[in-house]
Amino acid sequence: MEVILAKSAGFCFGVRRAMDKVYERVGTGEQIYMLGSIIHNEEVVKDLEKRGVKVLQSPEELLLLHEGVVVIRSHGVSKDIYKMIEEKGLTCVDATCPFVRKIHKIVEDESEKGAHIVIIGNANHPEVEGIKGWSKTPTVVIESAEEARNYEMPHNQMVCIVSQTTFNYNKFQELVEIFLKKGYDINVVNTICNATEERQKEAAEIARKVDMMIVIGGTHSSNTQKLYEICKAECANTHYIQTLEDLYLETETTKSIRCVGITAGASTPNNIIEEVQKYVRIDF
Predict the structure, then answer these.
(1) Do 136 and 60 share a structural domain?
(2) Count of domains forming the chain
(3) Is 198 a known active-site residue?
(4) What span, in angstroms and rounded, lies between the C-alpha atoms of 11 and 19?
(5) Pick from 57, 72, 96: which residue ends a domain?
(6) Which one is catalytic: 24, 67, 86, 127?
(7) Which three-class secondary structure state does DSSP give residue 72?
(8) Which residue, among 231, 227, 283, has the nearest Cα to 257 in the 3D structure?
(9) Alpha-carbon span 117 to 115, nearest angstrom
(10) How far apart are CA 183 and CA 178, in angstroms?
(11) 3 state DSSP class of 73
(12) pLDDT tens readout for residues 234-258
């Protein structure tokens, strides 16, 4: 069995940095809280919970704390959350991805100039929710071509377009083109992470060559979902799994499979990727 493993598969810089920050605090005797999952991978979150790290599901739960360490996850949070942590006298460990922090700064600066902020991404994604919290002017989140065509911005107002870091690069370009044709005074800042763009391109290239494509990542991982969509468009026999156990259920027969491609989202630990790769090489 030939197996092609994507070089870009697994933890990206921002996720690895976030993981290092939270594991550095584990075992210090402090009570550690994560405001939401540190990354979108259920296996990682389970491991941290076993080590005593507690997950806060909302800012309301944060307000109930009187002491402890609060880790801001890689997706980032709104400006108000930082203020809340400071006012409560809690220790803040900021694990926000630097590429996301860059978007916060752009949105804050551009909105101070009076620009209307357009975020291309998923409105329900925590990264997008955090980005919205740095704007001093109205924001709108656009995910589809239909939304872009139907949306009418205020006339005679500057517009700044940014993107969720894990958004599909080709789709971002498509939506930007729709806005540019409307004739607005637009400042477009491509804030898609370079690692995301490279991961998506590599996944598409591998998917074109193989008989089966395996995409590994958390069920709530936006970047993994987009990898799956990209691979599925190139290889109909594409499987989205979170762990090796999922692969057992996904693939009933592999007799006609000669070449398998494997990629993984930015929040997927190396040990899971290695398990899947080993299984495919030996047991397929």
Answers:
(1) no
(2) 3
(3) no
(4) 9
(5) 96
(6) 127
(7) strand
(8) 283
(9) 6
(10) 10
(11) coil
(12) 999 999 999 999 887 666 666 678 9
